[in-house]
């Protein structure tokens, strides 16, 4: 499956139809939902973990959790924000469960799964930026991705991660500074 | 304003978090300082590139077969799965735990009362006390009831685990810390009670801690979803 920029929103009526079917236990409907959103969820996991294996495992866990928890979705029209929030929560939860581990400070060599220059349509600097993001210390990477890529505000990131707003801002500042230094070279 | 002050709030300025008055002051500095203008341009360029990263990145392989296989092992309907976890499993577990907690309280009181009565009778008898004190036998009943209580609370723990990813991270930390503190205290109280089975206060402390643990678990399973 080629990776190319696609808006997060999909055809709302068909989405609603699939969500309703999946809630009733229709596995085919759920598979179609999976195929619609796996690229987006995997992108989040891949960037947050900077680890291909962990990101695949997490992606699977997220969709299994979606299947189990669809019944708790209060408004079917809110499926996409619900899915997105669940995915972010699970990525952050997985990080906490794994406990302390060393922040990665060296660039990632394995860029498989990230589009190469010939496939990138909008940004020719994407692979360099992907590599640089993957090389960030984990806390800084997390805040950068949630704020600058996913669009969350500091207060939301603080609430989701259990950190203070001040810490999140400091991490974002650090991430941006490191990225600018790395990308200048 | 100097460049150092400007750079301290560079991120807030670019992200639009500064108040109106501060923002104007930062804008005025930019008009005078080319270095800071360059910093702003670089930062905006980075943020722009980040926002334009591909929205989707496909996994290297199709993950669906693995997901489908694991779905078969779980409940067939998401609506049923959600309803089951608290309405049947959670509520029954809570009721069972509550019932055994009452039994534990009764057993503690009975064990201590028997111990006092039989100790005072034994003291008056020519041969002294029983070789196997009554309190020890009553304590055996206590541990049996405790096993059933722990089984019921395990079910509550399972319900809580299932809900973990829809609760707020801060709440999860609070609940887990509370449970760790309670578990440590329970272990210490149990050891002390085993060494001193007739000690009423210890028995009461232990049942109080069990009650507190059950309370924490019940509340955690009933917390509104964060999502």
Can you give a write-up of this model?
The complex is a heterodimer of chains A (185) and B (227). By secondary structure, chain A is mainly α. In chain A, 66% of the residues lie in helices and 0% in strands. Chain A has 8 helices and no strands. Chain A is elongated, with a radius of gyration of 17 Å. By secondary structure, chain B is an all-alpha fold. Chain B has helices at 3-8, 10-15, 20-32, 34-51, 64-73, 78-124, 134-163, 169-195, 200-222. Classes of the chains: A mainly alpha (185), B mainly alpha (227).
Which protein chains make the most extensive interface, counting residues with beta carbons within 8 Å of the other chain's beta carbons? A-B, 73 and 49 residues
Span between termini of chain A: 32 Å
Q: Report the strand count of chain A.
A: 0
Outline of chain B: elongated
Shape of chain A: elongated
Instruction: Give the overall average pLDDT of chain A.
Output: 82
The average pLDDT value of chain B, as a whole number, equals 74
* Tally of individual helices of chain A: 8
Structural class of chain B: mainly alpha
Low-confidence stretches of chain A: 1-7, 102-113, 115-123
Record keyword descriptors for this entry.
heterodimer; A: 185 residues; mainly alpha; 66% helix; elongated; disordered N terminus; B: 227 residues
Question: What is this structure's SSE topology?
Answer:
The complex is a heterodimer of chains A (185) and B (227).
Chain A: H1 12-23, H2 27-49, H3 52-69, H4 79-98, H5 126-134, H6 138-149, H7 154-161, H8 165-184
Chain B: H1 3-8, H2 10-15, H3 20-32, H4 34-51, H5 64-73, H6 78-124, H7 134-163, H8 169-195, H9 200-222
Helix pairs in contact in B: 6-7, 6-9, 7-9, 8-9
């Amino acid at each position: 499956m080629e990776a190319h920029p696609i808006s997060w929103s999909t055809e709302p009526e068909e989405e609603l139809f699939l969500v309703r079917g999946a809630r009733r236990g229709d596995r085919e409907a759920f598979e179609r939902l999976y195929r619609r959103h796996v690229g987006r969820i995997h992108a989040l996991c891949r960037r947050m973990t900077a680890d291909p294996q962990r990101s695949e495992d997490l992606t699977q866990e997220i969709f299994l959790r979606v299947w189990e928890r669809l019944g708790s979705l209060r408004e079917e029209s809110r499926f996409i924000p619900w899915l997105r929030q669940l995915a972010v929560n699970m990525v952050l939860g997985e990080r906490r469960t794994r406990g302390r581990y060393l922040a990665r400070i060296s660039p990632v060599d394995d860029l498989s799964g990230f589009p190469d220059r010939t496939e990138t349509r909008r940004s020719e600097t994407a692979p360099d930026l992907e590599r640089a993001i993957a090389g960030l210390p984990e806390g800084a990477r997390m805040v950068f991705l949630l704020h600058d890529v996913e669009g969350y505000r500091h207060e939301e990131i603080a609430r989701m991660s259990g950190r203070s707003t001040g810490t999140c801002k400091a991490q974002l500042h650090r991430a941006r500074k490191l990225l600018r230094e790395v990308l200048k070279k | 304003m100097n460049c150092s002050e400007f750079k301290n709030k560079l991120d807030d300025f670019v992200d639009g978090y500064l108040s109106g008055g501060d923002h104007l002051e930062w804008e005025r500095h930019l008009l005078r300082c080319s270095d800071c203008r360059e910093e702003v341009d670089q930062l905006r360029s980075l943020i722009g590139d980040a926002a334009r990263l591909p929205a989707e990145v496909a996994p290297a392989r199709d993950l669906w077969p693995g997901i489908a296989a694991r779905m078969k092992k779980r409940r067939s309907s998401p609506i049923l799965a959600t309803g089951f976890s608290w309405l049947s499993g959670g509520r029954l577990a809570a009721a069972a735990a509550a019932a055994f907690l009452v039994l534990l309280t009764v057993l503690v009181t009975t064990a201590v009362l028997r111990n006092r009565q039989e100790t005072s009778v034994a003291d008056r008898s020519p041969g002294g006390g029983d070789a196997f004190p009554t309190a020890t036998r009553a304590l055996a009943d206590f541990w049996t009831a405790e096993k059933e209580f722990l089984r019921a609370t395990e079910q509550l723990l399972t319900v809580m685990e299932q809900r973990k990813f829809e609760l707020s991270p801060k709440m999860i930390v609070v609940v887990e810390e509370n449970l760790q503190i309670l578990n440590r205290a329970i272990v210490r109280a149990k050891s002390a009670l085993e060494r001193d089975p007739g000690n009423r206060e210890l028995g009461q402390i232990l049942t109080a801690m069990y009650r507190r643990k059950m309370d924490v678990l019940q509340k955690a399973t009933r917390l509104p979803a964060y999502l």
